[in-house]
């Protein structure tokens, strides 16, 4: 018996231009080797391998979830870290947390059930698995960072064989 084809997917809120490009450039400047592979985003569903038959149902589920949510405002402000548990520095979501939590919960309650290692905490990673001095620099240099934008859609991403994450579908938030 042959195993069903699998694709590694993720769902996130993209950080719009020019803010996304700025944060991606800063992530690269801090020495994060994933900077060129992962667009700046707020994760809603972390990397998850799915079988092709489940994937089709999940795409429909994403559309249903997006149709039930209206656009919302996000404020990114200041830095945070998961150290010492995980070598991550991030930009904090200061406004829009409850909307992110609702989307995350609904996305994980459909055909793709995904347990989490840690509680969901919306954020934008700017340094991950880099030496401590680079984590400290990221934390300090972006401490005053602040931006606001409207979230009008979520993106479904696929991880390519080159390990680059690419958006493959956009789901407009159109409900309420």
Please characterize this protein's 3D structure.
The chain is an alpha+beta fold and 176 residues long. Helices cover 27% and strands 37% of the residues. The strands form two sheets. Strands 2-1-7-8 form a four-stranded antiparallel beta sheet, with helices on one face. A four-stranded antiparallel beta sheet has the order 5-4-3-6, with helices on both faces. The protein starts with 5 loop residues before the first strand and ends with a strand. The mean pLDDT is 94.
What are the main properties of this structure?
single chain, 176 residues, four-stranded antiparallel sheet, 4 helices, 27% helix, Cyclic Phosphodiesterase, Chain: A
Summed up:
This protein is α+β, with helices and mostly antiparallel strands and 176 residues long. 27% of the residues lie in helices and 37% in strands.
Topology:
Blueprint (H helix, E strand, L loop, with lengths): L5 E9 L4 H11 L11 E11 H16 L4 E10 L6 E8 L1 H11 L15 E6 L3 H10 L4 E6 L1 E7 L5 E8 L4
Antiparallel strand pairs: 1-2, 1-7, 3-4, 3-6, 4-5, 7-8
Fourth-tier CATH superfamily name = Cyclic phosphodiesterase
Distance between the termini: 45 Å
Rg is 16 Å
User: What proportion strand?
Assistant: 35-45%
> What structural class is derived from the secondary structure elements?
alpha+beta
Cα shape:
globular
What would the CATH topology be? Cyclic Phosphodiesterase, Chain: A
Q: Strand order within the widest sheet? A: 2-1-7-8
Assembly state = single chain
Q: On the 0-100 scale, what is the average pLDDT? A: 94
CATH C-level class is Alpha Beta
> Do you know the CATH architecture?
Alpha-Beta Complex
């Amino acid at each position: 018996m042959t195993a069903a084809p699998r694709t590694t997917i993720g769902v996130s809120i993209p950080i719009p231009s020019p803010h996304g490009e700025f944060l991606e450039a800063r992530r690269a400047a801090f020495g994060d080797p994933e900077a060129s592979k992962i667009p700046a985003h707020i994760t809603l569903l972390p990397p998850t391998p799915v079988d092709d038959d489940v994937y089709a149902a999940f795409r429909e589920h994403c559309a249903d979830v997006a149709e039930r949510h209206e656009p919302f405002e996000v404020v990114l402000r200041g830095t945070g870290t998961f150290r010492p548990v995980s070598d991550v520095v991030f930009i904090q979501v200061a406004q829009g947390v409850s909307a992110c939590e609702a989307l995350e919960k609904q996305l994980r309650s459909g055909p793709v059930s995904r347990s989490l290692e840690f509680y969901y905490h919306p954020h934008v990673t700017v340094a991950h698995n880099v030496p401590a001095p680079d984590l400290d620099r990221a934390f300090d240099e972006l401490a005053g960072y602040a931006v606001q934008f409207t979230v009008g859609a979520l993106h479904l991403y696929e991880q390519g064989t080159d390990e680059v994450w690419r958006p493959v579908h956009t789901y407009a938030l159109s409900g309420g």
